[in-house]
Design goal:
Layout (H helix, E strand, L loop, with lengths): L1 H21 L20 H18 L1 H4 L35 H10 L20 H13 L3 H11 L1
Amino acid sequence: MKKTYVIIFLISLLIAIIYTTSSPNGFVNQFSNLDGADELISEELLLSKIDTGRNIYKEKCTSCHGKELVGNKFWRTKKDIDGNNLPPPLNGTGHTWHHSPEQLFKIIKYGIKHFDPNYEGNMRGFEELSDDEIHSILEFIMSTWPEEIREQYTEKYQ
């Protein structure tokens, strides 16, 4: 099990390095510069943020969205025992990447009910997390998306 995490980390790291060195903008700053700063963060800082985000994700998000960010396989078709929507995947196979960086930030910070009080789901807010911690979670999530999705997202929200 631990070997799987090491392999996933190394693959994610390799993807991050390849992508950030092959593109002038990489997938840097989608979440870390919501304050309006235009400068790119260094590769070292990005990798540190992704690692921090991975650790926070493990602690706060894994119980619902899973270790591999796959959510519940019935997230589109079924409800939980209380009639709530099941957690979607965050790995680029769901709809997460259709939301702006600001929306994703606010969903994590304040919960989904911040946007839709009638939403039937369990995504609570994590107001105890700092803005930097939330940006790190988002950098980690985005680092798991397929390159094509990251490119589309960067193009749309840059």
